[in-house]
Sequence to fold (485 residues):
Amino acid sequence: MNRNVYTVGQITSYIKNMFSQDFMLSRISVSGEVSNVKYHSSGHIYFTLKDENSQIAVVMFQGSRRGLLFPMKNGDRAIVSGSVELYERDGRYQLYAREIAPDGKGDLFKQYEELKEALSEMGMFAPEYKKPLPKYAKRIGIVTAKTGAAIQDIRNVSARRNPSVQLILCPAKVQGEGAASSIVRAIERLDAMGLDILIVGRGGGSFEDLFAFSEEPVVRAVFECETPVISAVGHEIDTALSDYAADQRAPTPSAAAELAVFDRNTELERLEHLEEELRRLMLRRLASEKQRLRSLFSRLSSLSPKARLRYAGERLMREQEKLSGAFQALLLKRKHQFAILAESLQNLSPLKRLSGGYAYLMGADGKGKNSIHEIRVDETLRIHMKDGRFQAVVTEVEDE
Amino acid sequence: MNELKNRDAKRSEKETDEKNLEEELLELEEIVDALSKEELPLSDAFRLYEEGIQKVRECQSTIEGVEKKMQILCEDGSLEEFDDI
Fold:
């Protein structure tokens, strides 16, 4: 027996060589449904392309990313062009993609791009037409499928944030034949009700599944809707044209409910805070008024008639004291003056003069004699001396 | 058609409703601002305080509201409770 035994490496590189020499496999386009898409952080994309019976692993390296012509995700139908080669480490063949194009009916993706450009040129996506969402919406209309995750997500978020907000669903067919006109009609019916906000959207799906929200009648209806519209189509990475025309885009239906439904507790807390603030300010004001009142009262009582009377009485007493003091001083001064005068008067008294042996003459009538001519012979005269008096009779009068 | 006819009436009703809460809250903030000014006469302060507390109560009852069940707009234009969980 002549048996050749090969290593795994040898057989693997032999097979790899077979693949690379195959003319068809080195330049091939494969169509199928996309699944298990992984956008790796390195920029490489890994996914599986499958149909009813088979599947093939696909990788698109970061360097070929420009060849990805649409936001591909699970469920999309795509045409992948590249080469089929063997990946030696895993002993697996893979399709190495250079270009990935959507495989839509009638090339939906191209239609999407063309419509986007046309509507954008018409100004339908212009920011100046965007209406602000009312902050405290009480009634919110929803256009989506009656069954499915979207309506349940919206209902759950709304119930958590604010159970007193009224949600009104107008069910619409969101994919397949007639979906666009069903969505348009639902938008128009809810718009006519004069609600506060409309949420228009659906849960995730393939590009084709979501395409109804990119059809012109739907985009127009969203644009023309007088009620502010939040568009919430698919997941974060999906962008339907209704997203551009809406007043606000939400990445998912749940996120749309977060935007539309105000949080009741937050607002109640804010009110509580405002109430506390009102009370605090009023109490502060009252305290300051009380203080003011106290100071006014003390000023007022110092101005009362009673206080004034007391003050006047005190002043009167002071003046009285001053007056009596002045009077006493005056009296003293006068006494002193009197003493001086009395002294000088004393000195002027005729009796004082008699002290030197002089005498004072008076007639019998008590009048003083000032001249010899007033004296007659035989007249009795009274003569006062310092220490007594006597009478004498004039015997002779002699003129000088 | 009936829906379209009611539209204007409903819209203006909605707008006054809407204004109420948003404006009341704004006014409430203005009242708080005004009340924080010392030079405000005391009688005005009392009036503002009472007005403010009243507004707080009104806003609270507006916000608290009544729990609402989701409704579905039927083909004939009527509203029915939607409860199919």
